[in-house]
Design a protein that fits this description.
- With 201 residues, this protein is of the alpha+beta class.
- Helices cover 30% and strands 23% of the residues.
- It contains six helices and eight strands; from the N terminus they run αββαααβββαβαββ.
- An eight-stranded mixed beta sheet has the order 1-2-3-4-5-6-8-7.
- The chain is globular.
- The relative contact order is 0.20.
Length: 201
């Protein structure tokens, strides 16, 4: 698979956790990404079912975007199996809303997905992300990662982790720019990166 802005993808009912991301223009709190304004919309059963049906028009309406040029992200891990997993998880456990997939929009375009693998376990969450091919190399992955870190911190998460292939240099750099550092390799040969949610604490 080619080098991409893709990380191992993971991903409260209509709780504050969902509203924080779905109602906010997410940019880096440090101002490092002032040229980017990303809106991240929490996945719902309706959005996921529209995606499974291949109804991009319905998806665009539900996400509040004007156009969906490429979906799912080419070469990413946001695929049909992942979408079905998100949908089934939400149906079985509505409290997982906000701890799964988010759809990332810039302006009126859908550009990426990002999110968590599930609610925190012992204060730790794993993140993942997939950026559409035409929007890569534009620091969208880094901005989305930072938004996830901010959200996780606001919910009391202590540490975040991510997995990435060792040959995926762009994804590795995105994680590093967002404050992650490599800690180990797992049994599948992927690299594990971690960062504290609040390094100064």
């Amino acid at each position: 698979m080619p080098d991409t802005d893709v990380g191992g993808f993971a991903g409260i009912d209509a709780s504050p956790l969902v509203r924080i991301l779905s109602n906010s223009q997410m940019t880096s709190t440090s101002g490092r990404d002032d040229h980017l304004s990303l809106r991240m919309v929490a996945g719902t059963v309706s959005i996921l079912e529209a995606e499974l049906a291949g109804d991009l028009h319905c998806m665009a309406q539900l996400l509040g975007v004007d156009v969906i040029v490429e979906w799912p992200p080419n070469g990413g891990e946001h695929d049909r199996d992942a979408v079905e997993f998100f949908r089934q998880t939400l149906l079985n456990d509505p409290a997982s809303a906000g701890w799964l997939v988010y759809y990332v929009a810039r302006g009126g375009e859908l550009v990426a997905s990002a999110g968590f693998f599930g609610p925190p376990v012992a204060g730790v969450v794993e993140i993942g992300y997939s950026v559409c091919l035409r929007y890569r190399r534009q620091e969208i992955a880094t901005s989305a990662i930072r938004a996830l870190v901010d959200l996780a911190r606001s919910q009391g998460v202590q540490r975040l982790t991510a997995h990435v292939r060792p040959d995926n240099e762009h994804s590795i750099r995105a994680l590093q720019r967002a404050g992650f550092a490599q800690t180990t390799s797992d049994q599948d040969g992927q690299l594990m990166f971690t960062r504290e949610a609040n390094p100064s604490a």
